[in-house]
Amino acid sequence: MSTRLQDGYGPTLLVDSDLLMANSHVLLNTRPTVDLIDVLEGRCDWRDAVQKLPNGLSLLPGRTAANVLVESDAERLKDLLNTLKTTAHDFAYIIVDVPAGSGTGVMNTVSVADHTMVVLLGQATSFVDAYALIKNAYFEKNVTSFSAVVNMAKSAEQAKMIFDNFERTVSSFLPVKLVYAGYMPKMSEINASSVHGRSIDRDVMKARIYPKIDSILAALFAGGAGYTGPDAVTFHSPVP
């Protein structure tokens, strides 16, 4: 989605806020020498850690297997995201990819973002994880508006069924707004990219993936999901 925003909508910064299992730099085929951990620990400014990719997308990479105390860095991450919102004027969009779960770092990120998009899979573990995030975001941070995208669906009908089942559960217990933003079909190219740690061919991206992402972005920009324009968006990764 960050690549699509950069290609067709405006300058975009992707922040991979996973401090333990970050993989955005792998999927985007770049090898950073400094990353988010260096920024949080004061070794460099955030601008120096941003990687400029060939298509113009900017990436603030996370780190894999970092030797950090995740919870102790949560407040510093929140401060950094607030700094980005007030100083990163070169970007029309800031996408923050958060890890699965609902720990302090994830909650702090959600509290800073202007909108939170939850990624669902048709699996019980994904439902539990997504529900925990929404519940904790509501009770701890008073976040009341979310959108959801169903990933790896076999069809539009299956995707909507997965969302409807999840939405019924959420609305039964929580007074929050949860809007369906669309789905991504199960594609062998995306699966291979994740499994083998390589970027997706650009022609495949444009022909098969971009149209689906455009539909999701249209739902966001229409305002139905509580999001009306450029700013920070948090994407919550599903449990595998």
UniProtKB/TrEMBL annotation:
InterPro entries with a match to the protein in the record: Cellulose_synthase_operon_BcsQ, P-loop_NTPase, ParA/MinD_ATPase
Pfam families: CBP_BcsQ
Keywords associated with the record: ATP-binding, Cell projection, Cilium, Flagellum, Nucleotide-binding
GO MF annotations, alphabetized: ATP binding; ATP hydrolysis activity
Keyword Glycosyltransferase: no
SUPFAM superfamilies: P-loop containing nucleoside triphosphate hydrolases
Protein name per the record: Flagellar synthesis regulator
